[in-house]
Each structure stands twice: as C-alpha cells, then as structure tokens.
Amino acid sequence: MGRWERDDTLVVDTTGLDDKTWLTRMGYPHSMDAQVHERYVRPDHNDLQLTITVDDPKIYTKPFVLGSTNFKWVPNQQLAEQLCIPSEMLQYLDIVGDPAGKGVPPTQ
Predict the structure, then answer these.
(1) How far apart are CA 37 and CA 54, in angstroms?
(2) What does pLDDT average to over the chain?
(3) Which DSSP letter does residue 93 get?
(4) What angle do CA 94, 83, 1 make, to 5 degrees?
C-alpha cells in the first residue's frame, strides 16, 4: 500500500511476502511477518532518493535499512529496452527462491 507524506515523499509498505524467498542475493531471510518500507523522496526536480527498510520481528531484533539508492534525471537519457523472457524469469526464480542457496547467478 502506498501513501504520500508531504508533497515530495511516497512511502510504499509491502506485507505478505512469500517466506521462501530472500531479501537480497546475499541471503537475508525473512518470515511471512516481514514488512518492507520503501521511501521515495524527491528533494529537487532532478533527484530521487530511495531507502528500503525491513521490519521482521520474527527474525531480526530491530528494523534495518536494506539499502539506499540515489537516482539523477539526465536530460535526453536513453534507457535500454528490457524484455521479459520466460526462461530468464524461471532462472531468476530458481536463484532467488532457492532457500538453500544452491542457485548460481547467470553469467553474461
């Protein structure tokens, strides 16, 4: 669920995650009680800041910041087209959804 805080901040709260996945490729586990908070802040016209916080009292003693990222708008920026290919999705799910950590990231 998302909500606006002030005019420059969008907060997205996610619950009900499948406990068979990990929070990151490094293997941070989570329970079904986990709550993920994404905070998107636009301090000015050209910048966007994203901070992801995880709160899972079943596994962790306190909430922690999973990561922060800064995005900068670049005029006339061209983004590469991303295609959703079913075989790549299955490979991704095999890597991320493997609770025993046997998945190996694809090589390029």
Answers:
(1) 6
(2) 82
(3) H
(4) 70
What torsion do the CA atoms of 73, 78, 83, 84 make, to the nearest 10 degrees? 0
CB atoms within 10 A of CB 7: 6
| pLDDT level of residue 97 (50, 70, 90 thresholds) | low
Element (H or E) spanning 91, and its range? helix 86-96
* Cβ-Cβ contacts under 8 Å for 4 (sequence gap 6 or more): 10, 11
Helix, strand, coil abundance in the chain, percent, nearest 5: 10, 35, 55
The band of 36, judged by pLDDT with boundaries at 50, 70 and 90, is: very high
Given pLDDT bands bounded at 50, 70 and 90, which one contains residue 81? confident
Instruction: Look at residue 92 and give its three-state secondary structure.
Output: helix
